[in-house]
Amino acid sequence: GPAHLFRLAGKCFSFVESTYKYEFCPFHNVTQHEQTFRWNAYSGILGIWHEWEIDNNTFVGMWMREGDSCETKSRQTKVHLVCGKSNKLAFVSEPSTCVYSLTFETPLVCHPHSLLVYPTLTEALQRRWDEAEQLLYDELITDQGYKKTLKDIFEEAGLLKGTEEKEVEKQNKKISLEFETVEKCSKEYKQLSKEIKKLKDLLSQHGIAYKGNSGE
């Protein structure tokens, strides 16, 4: 992500709404604490730093996922990054059950280029993006294909988390490659054994004694 935003790491910002205190710790988590004297006052995690929200090739927010369980799912929070005079948590809402929305103001995102994704990528990934732009311009890929390429680039850069299916696919590919390697190795070994046997036979025909390695 944008290197200048990592200045916020290790810091926490709070916001009080009604009887709840919300705390946002960039690149760490979001928590909620009920400000009450009740014996069972709620205090928990609304999400742990997971991935960026990218829209129109720009970082627009941070997703905090896998918070405390809430009925059948985990609590999650989207933190919107907006330009402000100081670093502060400005607004909190719960647009749907157990999905929270936080607005974080910071002067670090006021520059028009401060949240562009492209400059944060490696040269190799930037080249892939350039190629995708060219293919789209030449109408050699569809808009959908272009978006998929960008998503793959963002995942490779670690800005987005790959889907579970993709992780499983990656593991299966790794296993099949390992199997292929072991199989290939075994095949090569058998071939070499045959050739060594031929050489041994040839040497014995000429009355030459064969001395193998001590490990043989």
Would you write up a description of this structure?
The longest helix is centred in the C-terminal third of the chain and has 42 residues, at 164-205. The protein is elongated, with a radius of gyration of 28 Å. It starts with 12 loop residues before the first strand and ends in an 11-residue tail after the last helix. It has 3 helices and 10 strands; from the N terminus they run E-E-E-E-E-E-E-E-E-E-H-H-H. Helix 1 (123-137) runs antiparallel to helix 2. With 216 residues, it is of the alpha+beta class. 33% of the residues lie in helices and 31% in strands. The model has no long low-confidence stretch (mean pLDDT 86). It has an 8-stranded mixed beta sheet with strand order 1-2-3-4-5-8-10-9, with no helix packed on it. A two-stranded antiparallel sheet has the order 6-7.
- Kindly report how far apart the N and C termini lie: 56 Å
Largest beta sheet, briefly? 8 strands, mixed
Strand residue content = 25-35%
- Silhouette: elongated
Note the quaternary state here: single chain
Overall structural class, as computed from helix and strand content, comes to alpha+beta
Q: Residue-averaged pLDDT, rounded?
A: 86
Low-confidence stretches: none
Sheet with most strands: strand arrangement = 1-2-3-4-5-8-10-9
Helix content: 25-40%
The Cα radius of gyration reads 28 Å
Task: Give the count of helical stretches.
Answer: 3
Number of E strands: 10
Order of helices and strands: EEEEEEEEEEHHH
